[in-house]
Give the backbone structure.
Amino acid sequence: MINSDFNAEIEEASSVIGKTWPLYGFVTSNPLSGYEGLSFGDAIQKAKKYFGGSVLPTASMFQQAWSCGEIKDDILKEILTEAGLYQQAEFYLKEMDMAGDSHPIKGNPKLDRIMAKWLGMFMDEGMAEWEMPGRSEGFFVCWRRLAIYDQEIGIITGNKIPETAEQALSASLQSYSPKECVSIFGHHLAALPGWTGYIKYRMQEGSLWQQKYPITLKEYLAVRMWIAGQINTEIHTIKPVDHHETDLFSLQLLWLRAWEKSWQKGLGKAISENLIHLKSVPFIKKNLLAQFVFCIDTRSELIRRHIEAKGDYETFGYAGFFGLAADYRDPASGLVRKSCPPILSSAYTISEVPLPGKASDMAQYLKRKNYQKFADFLGQRMKNMLPSAFGYVEGTGLFYGLALLRRSIFGTRQFNGKTTHENSCTTQMGYHGDEKINSEIELIEKVAIVKSAFELLGWRNFAPLVIFAGHGSQSVNNPFASSLDCGACAASPGRHNARMLAALANLPEVRSALKAEFGIDIPRGTFFMGAEHNTATDELVLFDAEVPASQSLRITLLKSDLKEFQQSAIAERQQKKNGRNIARRKVADWAETRPEWGLAGNAGFIVAPRVLSQNMDLKSRCFLHSYDWELDKKGLYLEMIMQGPMVVTQWINNHYYFSTVDNDRFGGGSKITHNVTGRFGVVSGNGGDLKAGLPLQSVNSSDSVIYHHPIRLSVIIQAPCERIEQILLRNDQLKRLIVNEWIYLLVIDPLGDNQISRYQKDGSWALIDNEEMAASSMLSFNLE
């Protein structure tokens, strides 16, 4: 191996780890995405060899689900019997409980500690007061120059450290074959998956920090291999196969399938009953006051149901970036952040300019932001600088003590303060990378964006007022705050995209082209407007500064109704009449570990007209994407939904799944012991691995009681089976996700009397017999 550059071996081994996203853009993603080419069962077994711990729900989790009726007795008995297991459920629960968690992979704490220390210093993104010298030359060169000062490594004499990463790897691995090197690299990457996942993120995303201070997985492995030799630790550890553990794994997988099948049958029963009801009571809404387009996010389901109950409103579901592959430029800082799914390349940049007559308001906002930014910078410098640290703390101790008391009693900031400038400006969009603030995109592209939105949603008629509602969350003292914003906008709020789509749809030249070229006739009196849904409080804020006078009465009525919708929705969510007050206190409480539940509980993705799930209480467990198969003759828009939102929702589902089954390894651990490092991540305590998943408080209601139910995503699509088969034939990656059981695909075939079928591994369809469905649907399941 001496002459190898090791690139191929490292590339193959890197599939062991996923990407760790930074706190300022914390996107939920499948931590085992590199294994998606394998079946789910094979993938988690392979991952277990590297990571150890739990990759399936524990006996305690199954006990909770079985006790509350989420796992149905008849379904569990059927699945166990088919596997040749005939004992009662209690017997197998006891057997799983006695087996307990598997033994962790044998690691080297000293080696991990040394590597985490060096990575933390090198990858710092502005948090450290004293910067590590020489970072611009790259990780290996920088470490090589400073390693002689690390007493934990031992005494280093002369030119003992090789000059390049390749030479260091060759010296450490000269007696191993390429296949053995892949295994060795995999184990060492998996030893600190949070840190190595962040290196992988920086390499693939090409962040500014990576451009300035480059680091690669090869450099990481070279440093780790060399230090391992220096401290005399073995570099190759293979976990032996435990046959008892394999038997336990198979049993857990059977219970998981019973859980998932119980969910699917309950959901199928509820949908079937709703369709039968609609046949006798057709759902038709006329004389609408307004239409809302929300993100497909599970948290939108509750507010949509409360809005629709009023009778004068209709809602749609659309991925929260609203079809705009764009970045957003902050007018205060000038920073540009991604505002579309990570799987898309940004084509545009959304920016903001003052409205006519509002330049002074915008200037005041920017002035306040700059003052706040300088004050924060000065305070941080005073606290961190060695000459001033002690005097600053002593001199300001009383002030900080009083501020701490005020924050504890009254909260930290004015409610919804982050949208204060939106009604002083308007949005515009230019090409990505174009620094000209007034750059404009071509008309043909504007028309294509609006047309795609309307046709993908299956829009037939337009109300006088149409609201595109992006969403964001609100919390304080919360490192994981971005994880509660819009995942479709790369963990940014979706209001910028919502406002931009509304602005495009209002353009006279866009409307004229839509009518002339595609027959899409938007009534002259219809006005499109952006809004933001605060998922922590269920408040809806309208960005109505540009609304014409002809809409003033509707806006007045709408705002009155919105207060009612918010109060009823948040009361249901909090299960208390004063839910709004409770929610507002939580988002302003600096000690609150759970400002909201986020996407916890997600289990289904429904792609169909809203009427199919109308009036159903889905308990915020389903993503809801509007789609009308009759208006999509060639299936092109369904293919777009399956290629984009379906894949992203699978990532989200897997992230919550693995963060629940083993929160220490795949999740974020408890927030109580979190410390922010480098401004981009958290560690537990004073060091160790970077936490790559969701905190314990985001998936559990207590240390031992789960809130999120770890089952795989069930996708339910209303469309002809033949159409979906054609899409899968054209998309091998989508087919692999389904055949390998990372996703369950169920289809409501409108050409087959809307019967529900499940896609099988062999490409056939298995009809879900409605007569044998669970006696009570999932709507009655207790998620607490």
